[in-house]
Design brief:
Elements lengths: L1 E3 L3 E4 L1 H7 L5 E11 L2 E6 L2 E7 L2 E2 L8 H12 L5 E10 L4 E7 L2 E2 L1 H6 L4 E2 L12 H11 L13 H14 L2
Parallel strand pairs: 5-8
Antiparallel strand pairs: 1-2, 2-7, 3-4, 3-7, 4-5, 6-10, 7-8, 8-9
Length: 171
């Protein structure tokens, strides 16, 4: 069964369990980093936008944390670097949504462990197979990055909802 949420269409976990299919790893090369959660990659000879699954970077207005997330992603996945991509979904914007791995290491690990991004399953809804919450808790306990503020900065998904509500109320 396919389900479409706010901005993503994904296959339900029961359908995945029935098919036992895990998307194969595909080789990609980083062409650009768009922000703290999105890259432009070359895959199968085409430039495609890839959103990292199961995490959320601070919104652009959440400075300096949004910039720090982008810089961290640029440092971890510089232009020209090669990764193995595993597709988890495609969103309504045409982006590929998935994980990037190299030498058995998930690209999200340092971003979460440094407190540059948040673990977030609201976008995809099936992230319990990844250790992202545990990595985030490590940063939170050490008060790193977005966790340097008591309780962490305002969550990006709350920021998005507040901005949308304000836009609806504006004359």
């Amino acid at each position: 069964m396919t389900a479409c949420g706010l901005a993503v269409c994904s296959v339900s976990s029961s359908a995945l369990a029935q098919s036992s299919a895990v998307a194969p790893l595909q080789s990609v090369q980083v062409l650009a980093v768009n922000n703290g959660q999105e890259l432009l990659v070359e895959i199968e000879g085409q430039g495609r936008t890839l959103r990292l699954s199961c995490l959320q970077a601070p919104r652009p207005q959440q400075q300096p944390w949004a910039e720090q997330a982008t810089v961290a992603l640029v440092q971890e996945a510089p232009v020209g670097s090669r990764w193995q991509f595993q597709l988890r979904a495609r969103d309504v914007y045409g982006r590929l949504v998935g994980t990037l791995q190299r030498n058995g290491q998930d690209l999200a690990a340092p971003l979460l462990r440094q407190g540059r991004v948040f673990a977030y399953d609201g976008f995809l809804g099936r992230c319990d197979d990844l250790p992202y919450t545990r990595w985030q808790e490590e940063a939170e306990s050490q008060r790193l990055g977005v966790w340097s503020v008591p309780g962490g900065i305002s969550r990006p998904w709350d920021q998005r909802e507040q901005t949308a509500a304000a836009d609806r109320l504006a004359p």
